[in-house]
From TrEMBL:
Upper taxonomic lineage: Bacteria, Pseudomonadati, Pseudomonadota, Alphaproteobacteria, Acetobacterales
GO molecular function, one term: hydrolase activity
Record carries keyword Acetylation: no
UniProt-listed Pfam families: Lactamase_B_2
Taxonomic superkingdom: Bacteria
Record keyword Ribonucleoprotein present: no
Residue ranges annotated for the Metallo-beta-lactamase domain, each copy included: 39-232
Swiss-Prot/TrEMBL keywords: Hydrolase
Protein name: Metal dependent hydrolase PhnP
Length: 262
C-alpha cells in the first residue's frame, strides 16, 4: 500500500496570504526550507490492485495531483465539510474524464448536505453525455462502518474536531486522523497495532479544534505505532525544528511525501 501526502498544511496553508512584500506569512517556518511550503491537507492511498482512494479534495487539488504525478483516483472519501477539505471538488471532473466513469464518493450525511448545497450542479443526474462537470456516485457512510472503496477495506471512526466531528480512517496497518482534538477510548483502542499513523498536529500549544504536539505524543505513547507522521500543520511548525526535537519514530510530513505500508 502506497500513501502520498498531497498536502499537509492547515486551513490557510503555509505560507499564509499576507506579508509586507506579499510573499506570505511564514510564522516560525523558515521560508528557505522547501518542506515548509504546505498546501491544504489531503492524501491518496493506492492499494495492491492499483486503484487509488482520495481522502478530501481541498482547494489545491489540481496542483497537488500534478506535483505528485497522480494520474487519477477511483473513489473519494470526505472526512468533514470544512472548506479546506472540500473546496476542490470541481477538479474531480478531470478525474471523471481520465477514468471515463462517475466517481464514487463516500461521505457522512452532514457532509453530503454541505456538498450538495455548495456544488449542486455536481449532483444532478448524469445523462452519460460527457464530463463537463463532476459526476459523482454518492454513498452515505457513518462512523463505525467499514467500507470497500477503490479496492481497499476502510474502517471509519468518529473524531471530535472542536464544535463538530470528523471521520478518521484505518486501512490495514495504516490510519489517517486529520482535524481531531479528542478520540474516545474505544476509538483509540481500535488504533492499536498500527505500522504508520498520519495524524493532524496544528501547533505546539493546545488548540480548541486541533491536536497539538504534546497531545499527539500522549496518544502515540498509548498506541505505539512504528511510525507517526504529523500533518495539518500550521505556520509555527518549522520542519527542521520538528525533525530535530521530536522523539525517534515521530516526524513531520511534507507535501509530496510517499509512504509505503505493507
Amino acid at each position: 500500500m502506497k500513501i502520498t501526502i498531497l498536502g499537509c498544511g492547515g486551513s490557510a496553508g503555509v505560507p499564509m496570504i499576507g506579508g509586507q512584500d506579499g510573499a506570505g506569512l511564514w510564522g516560525r517556518c523558515d521560508p528557505r526550507e522547501p518542506r515548509n511550503t504546505r498546501t491544504r491537507s489531503s492524501i491518496v492511498i493506492e492499494g495492491p490492485g492499483g486503484e487509488s482512494l482520495l481522502v478530501d479534495s481541498g482547494p489545491d487539488l489540481r496542483t497537488q495531483f500534478l506535483a505528485a504525478r497522480i494520474p487519477a483516483v477511483h473513489a473519494v472519501v470526505y472526512t468533514h465539510p470544512h472548506s479546506d477539505h472540500v473546496a476542490g471538488l470541481d477538479e474531480l471532473r478531470a478525474v471523471n474524464r481520465v477514468i471515463d466513469a462517475p466517481l464514487p464518493l463516500y461521505a457522512a450525511e452532514d457532509v453530503l448536505e454541505e456538498l450538495r448545497a455548495r456544488f449542486a450542479y455536481a449532483f444532478r443526474p448524469w445523462q452519460g453525455s460527457g464530463f463537463f462537470r463532476p459526476v459523482l456516485e454518492t454513498h452515505l457512510v457513518a462512523a463505525g462502518q467499514s467500507i470497500r472503496a477503490a479496492g481497499l477495506e476502510v474502517a471509519l471512526f468518529e473524531q471530535r474536531h472542536g464544535r463538530t466531528t470528523s471521520l478518521g480512517l484505518r486501512c490495514g496497518a495504516f490510519a489517517y486522523c486529520t482535524d481531531v482534538e479528542f478520540m474516545t477510548d474505544a476509538v483509540l483502542d481500535g488504533l492499536t497495532g498500527l505500522d504508520t499513523w498520519v495524524v493532524g498536529c496544528f501547533q505546539h500549544e493546545p488548540h480548541v479544534a486541533h491536536a497539538w504536539v504534546g497531545l499527539v505524543l500522549e496518544w502515540r505513547e498509548r498506541l505505539k505505532p512504528r511510525r507517526t507522521i504529523l500533518t495539518h500543520m500550521g505556520p509555527d511548525m518549522d520542519y527542521a525544528s520538528l525533525l530535530r526535537d521530536l522523539p525517534a519514530g515521530v516526524e513531520p510530513a511534507y507535501d509530496g511525501m510517499v509512504i509505503t505500508v505493507s
